[in-house]
Structure formats: C-alpha cells, structure tokens
Design brief:
Layout lengths: L2 H31 L11 E3 L7 E8 L3 E8 L6 E6 L17 E7 L18 E10 L2 E8 L5 E7 L5 E8 L3
Length: 175
C-alpha cells in the first residue's frame, strides 16, 4: 500500500470520526431542550373515592417546567376532580369565584374542611396567577386556581407525612 493510499484512508477515517462527533453534539442539543416536554394534556383528571380527613393547608411552588399546588390533608388521600372551567363556583352557594388569569382550574377535593386555610401567594409565578378558596360543603372542598392560559396539567396524590396525605396539581409552563 502506497503512502498516498494510507494518507487518503487516514483522511477519510478522520472525516468520518469528525462527522460522528458533530452528529453526536447536534443530537445532544435537542435532548436537553426537551427536558420540559410534557404529555399531560388539559382534559379533566378525576378520582372518585371520598376520604375522612380534612384540608389542613394549601401551598404552592414553582419548578423548572411547571408550577405546583399542594393541598395538605389530615387523612388518607381523597378523590378529586380537577378541570378547566369557564367559572369556578363556590361550594354550597354556587356563586362565581373570580380569579386572575386567562384560564381557570376548579380543584375539587373530596374531603371537607373545618376552617378556611390560608391561600398561597403566587405573585411572580410563570403559570399561576391566583389561588382562592371556593368553600367546603357536604364533605367536598373546592379551590379556584387562575392560570396564565389553558396549559397541560397533571394531578396525583402522595401518602404522608404521618397519617396525612397530599393532593398535587402541576400545571406546565408551556405546551
């Protein structure tokens, strides 16, 4: 094999290796940008069972890809119904509960409350605009959650701490 042939093969091998490295670097870019991709959707999320506990507190936080609302409960995880609505209605009276934002989520927790919990301030959150108490009546409590727009959300429950539980509502910052 001549030196020209060896040089040509080496050049081809280096070009292939460079192309492979470039392809890997390009492929890694979109993967890191996709870390906030969500598949939750914006349709109603429900779970039927009632629970014997009570609403103890309501808190909120913001994460990289979503804002989170947490309803702390004194007993086992209850059923829930979380959905976008035109107007959130107060438990018992049916009166409208206005909230700031381009869309409204009615967060219905299938357990009562013996007192009105403090509502968290969500000023400066990317997605949440306002959280309001909409009442508790006949073993069911409702919160009005104003959000920037109709965005995907997910709902789940967590056991603990202790004998309590938590209802968690995450609303994505974007589609």
């Amino acid at each position: 094999m001549s030196s020209t042939s060896r040089t040509r093969r080496a050049t081809i091998a280096l070009a292939a290796a460079a192309a492979l490295c470039t392809t890997s670097a390009v492929a890694a870019g979109p993967a890191s940008a996709a870390t906030c991709a969500v598949t939750w959707g914006s349709l109603a999320k429900t779970s039927a069972p009632m629970a014997g506990g009570r609403v103890a507190a309501v808190r909120a936080g913001t994460q990289t890809c979503f804002d989170r609302l947490v309803v702390d409960l004194t007993g086992p995880a209850p059923g829930y119904d979380v959905r976008y609505v035109t107007t959130v209605l107060a438990e018992g009276s049916g009166a409208p509960v206005p909230v700031a934002g381009g869309a409204r989520l009615a967060v219905v927790v299938r357990t009562g409350a013996t007192s009105v919990p403090a509502m968290p301030s969500v000023a400066g959150y990317p997605t949440f605009r306002q959280v309001r108490w909409a009442g508790s009546f006949e073993g069911q409590s409702t919160l009005a959650l104003g959000v920037r727009a109709r965005l995907p959300f997910r709902v789940f429950t967590l056991a603990g701490p202790g004998t309590g539980s938590r209802l968690v509502v995450d609303v994505a910052h974007s589609w």
